[in-house]
Amino acid sequence: MGLVTFNGQVFDLPLLEGCVATLVATNRSRYREGDHVILVGEVVRYDVRGGVPLVFHDGRYIASAVEEPLPDALKTPWR
Questions:
Q1: In which band, very low, low, confident or very high, does the pLDDT at 79 lie, cut at 50, 70 and 90?
Q2: Contact 19/8 with Cβ under 8 angstroms?
Q3: C-alpha pair distances (Å), 25 with each of 3, 9, 10, 37, 45
Q4: DSSP labels for 14-69?
Q5: Which pLDDT does position 49 carry in this prediction?
Q6: What pTM did the predictor assign?
Q7: Which of 25, 48, 68, 77 sits most deeply, having the most CB atoms within 10 A of its CB?
């Protein structure tokens, strides 16, 4: 596995370098659900550099994705 580089210039947190976007959030609330804890955060800073995102889909990572047009049958809302 390669070396991951980061900087600590914002709120003294390690922010990964080379990301297409970064979010800094504070913990707003926490909920226990069974053996899980759900954290709700409030974004206090973001930065969008742009570029091709890394996407995790169908059990694998892909570096590019083309969104197919929505089929006509799904364009009408369900009632």
A1: low
A2: no
A3: 25, 15, 11, 17, 7
A4: EEETT-SEEEEEEEEEEEEETTEEEEEEEEEEEEE--SPPPEEETTEEES---PPP
A5: 85
A6: 0.55
A7: 25
Instruction: Quote the distance between the C-alpha of residue 11 and its chain's center.
Output: 19
Give the total residue count for the chain: 79
Distance CA 44, CA 29 (A): 15
Give residue for tokens 């047009």: 69
Amino acid identity, residue 20?
V
How much is the pLDDT for 30? 96
Structure tokens at 19: 């990301």
Q: Which two tokens stand for residue 24?
A: 């800094």
